[in-house]
Amino acid sequence: MTEVRHNGGRYGKALAAVGAATALAAGAAAPTMAMTATGGERYVALGDSYTSGPGIPQQTGGDCARSSVNYPSLTAKKLRQKSFRDVSCSGATTADMWQAQGANAPQLNALGKGTRLVTVGIGGNDVGFGEIIRTCAQLSVSDPAGDPCRKQYTESGTDELTGRINDTAPKIAKVLAAIHQRAPKAKVVLVGYPSIMPDNGVGCFPNVPIAAGDVSYLRDTEKKLNAMLQEQAGKAHIRFADTYRATVGHDVCRPAAGRWIEGAQPSRPAAPFHPNADGEQAMSRPVISQARAR
Question: pTM score, two decimals?
């Protein structure tokens, strides 16, 4: 049996990496006065770290940690968009569509009447991705074979994370309405989240410090989030890009050669629990498909 230590060994290193990941997910500094931005590029990408691609070379965008090969950049190249602007930012929530995130202007400022395509990937930080991963990782050492994280989030008799997803739904609806208002002629694609935990529910503790029973709990929670996003896209009469199905089988527990979502200790350039370059490439495919659809 593998020895598990709270402050050392494989588990300790993995937990330290989780801490670094959740610190990154917290994003840029507290909001300050927004920089002036003139919107109107034909393709504008909005979103959080799953859009921006932290850690994947080449990094741009300062503290927003954007990659030059994230799915917006790949989409722009494939669609031959000569007028393109990516304002996605690590740590972004729906509130950052309207408010400055550190030195970064509100993301909606990038839109204009000349915008013809908008992709947006948001909602995970409203639900609390970073805090959830950190909490589940810390609790996993207490019961590696059990489901301590699920027990904590359901101890009140209801599922707190399901409640957070439900509370995020109207925020997504508000974002989509604002995009339409600012870019009335644009095709809008709402982008879901990739397959982070194994779809078969089988984890890989301690390499990824999530207790065995919590792997399926977190998988199902993410599926609920994606289902909510798809529902909001339908209500807004816009396209939804299903990046979950596009990445199944390439989750955090896969061998490095076939892993598109890095685990607690990335073996390729990426933030922990985030897509690497192959993951962003895979995410771009359904985004491109939906952008092309009539």
Answer: 0.90
